[in-house]
Design a protein that fits this description.
Blueprint (H helix, E strand, L loop, with lengths): L1 H17 L3 H22 L3 H17 L9 H18 L5 H11 L7 H18 L2 H11 L5 H8 L3 H33 L2
């Protein structure tokens, strides 16, 4: 019963936000900042980078408030955090110009339906994970999905921390490479069909 009331209260706050109510935005910020920060930290365990991620989520939320049509605000915010983390990781790529050029049209979590976007991203990542070698897959899942540190993974799997770091680096670069190619294909298709 309490969660139902909380959900209704969330919807009311987001309705007020959509109308430009700064107090509602401030309440949303205070209610969700810590929870969203913790979600980001599990995927990107660097304090300052996580703070940037959360600030970006809330800045996008405010900038796009008039476009919001949310049925599940908390799921929506968590999806936004996941994509901001991916965007942050992608910025380290040499080919990030492709990502930046098309991110607004292709993967912006605050312009698309959160549940649909989350499913598409989840499917893509699941396919990537299934294609990884067994050892690398295990390390990738433990680090990015279960939030374990490289030190903890090395102890649990009885391998050196350097091996864990190398496997994570290899998997991350492979994911970036595949995403870059996907964005390139989409960019070419977009330029052919929409120009």
């Amino acid at each position: 019963m309490e969660s139902c009331r909380k959900s209704e209260n969330d919807l009311h706050l987001f309705d007020l936000l959509k109308q430009g109510n700064e107090q509602a935005f401030s309440k949303i910020y205070k209610l969700y900042w810590a929870e969203l920060y913790n979600a980001a930290y599990k995927r990107l365990p660097e304090k300052e980078k996580c703070q940037d991620v959360i600030q970006n989520v809330f800045a996008d939320l405010w900038n796009r408030k008039a476009e919001l049509d949310l049925q599940k605000p908390l799921a929506y915010l968590h999806t936004a955090v996941r994509f901001q983390v991916l965007k942050h990781i992608q910025r380290g790529s040499k080919n990030s110009f492709l990502y930046q050029a098309f991110e607004e049209k292709l993967i912006s979590p605050l312009r698309a339906d959160g549940e649909l976007l989350e499913k598409e991203a989840k499917d893509l990542i699941e396919l990537f994970i299934k294609a990884l070698p067994k050892k690398r897959r295990k390390i990738f899942i433990l680090h990015y999905f279960e939030g374990l540190s490289t030190a903890k993974i090395s102890v649990d799997l009885n391998i050196s921390q350097k091996t864990v770091q190398n496997q994570l680096t290899t998997a991350t670069h492979a994911l970036k490479f595949r995403l870059t190619h996907i964005f390139l294909v989409i960019a070419v298709a977009y330029s052919i069909f929409f120009k």
